[in-house]
Amino acid sequence: MSGLIMALVQVLVGIFLYVNCLMIFTFLNKAVFREDTRYILFAQTLFVDSALMVLTDMLMILSLYQYRIHMIPCIIMFVTAFTICTPLTLVAMCLERYVAICMPLRHADISTSRTRFLGLLIIWGISSVVPLFTLVAYLSVVPPGSLFSYDVCSVELMLGQEWQAQIRVTILQLLFLLMIIIIVFTYIKIMTAARAASSDNKKSTNKSLRTVILHAFQLFLCIMQFLSPYIEMVFLKIDVSVYGHLRYADFVIFIIAPRCLSPLIYGLRDEKFFHALKHHAFFNKLSLTMSLIISCGDGLPLKTKCY
Question: What's any one GO cellular component for it (predicted)?
Answer without folding.
Answer: membrane
